[in-house]
Amino acid sequence: MNPTVPLIFRKGATALITGAASGIGLATAQRCYAHGMHLVLLDYNSDGLSNATKLFPTTGPNRVTTHVIDVSSMDEWVRLRPKIEAFHPGGIDFLMLNAGAGLAPTNGKGLWEDAEYFQRTFAINVLGYTNALVAFLDSVTKEKAARRAIVLTGSKQGITNPPSNPAYNASKAAVRTVAEHLAFDLSETAQNVSVHLLIPGWTYTGFHTAAFKEKPPGAWTSEQVVEFMVQKMAESKFYILCPDNEVTEELDRKRILWATRDLTEGRPPLTRWRDDWKGVIESEWDKMMP
């Protein structure tokens, strides 16, 4: 048994992954498939999902099924559940909730003028996770012997809260809260199920292809994120805070600590980006504990 690979990644286990057509979701599916796991791949992008399945030959022992779904719709989850249960009566061993969207206001509206920008962002990035948990949490927790795991993909923007996209930041902050409560509750009721909050760094995915035709040197690949995730899952880490080729783990810790001190020290919000706080940051930053 390889101690650097969690027991969840084992032959014959079943992984259900949302946002599986590209990026981190697809890279995770490839990792699961390589370990002989069965795959249940969900995405809203039917063409992307169809192309992704070409990476998973059906000639081997792995069973691979795909489902096009709007994760924000509870009705669609309700209709999907019996189809998946019929194919995987033993339940889900690895549930990865990864579907997300980074939306922007439309029709020339500002950030605080477009209600749909907030509604749709929260519907996908928050309700897409809670809907999945309502539909499939008991499928993960009903087995009390085998090791199982749930991963929720968050974002550093939900922690350090940089300006410019309040809906996305708030939605990812909500994912963090959901994950923390889920981990707490399952630590008492389903101790064989580990919960993890994946917090990627700068990762070159479909979110960035419009701005960058090739991977920027500072970004990690999705495969690097998944490798880091697997390593930290093996170490039983809940917070999986990924570095990248520009931002070290020490720098992440400083940024998180600074943001937290806005609250604990009674400072204005988001001082790290305020012009009138630049002098304070310059004098205090290097003194902070790594």
Automatic annotation (TrEMBL):
One GO MF term: oxidoreductase activity, acting on the CH-OH group of donors, NAD or NADP as acceptor
PANTHER family in the record: BENZIL REDUCTASE, SHORT CHAIN DEHYDROGENASE_REDUCTASE (AFU_ORTHOLOGUE AFUA_2G00830)
PROSITE patterns named in the record: ADH_SHORT (PS00061)
Similarity field: Belongs to the short-chain dehydrogenases/reductases (SDR) family.
InterPro entries: NAD(P)-bd_dom_sf, Sc_DH/Rdtase_CS, SDR_fam
GO biological process: secondary metabolite biosynthetic process
Protein name: NAD-dependent epimerase/dehydratase domain-containing protein
Keywords carried by this UniProt record: NADP, Oxidoreductase
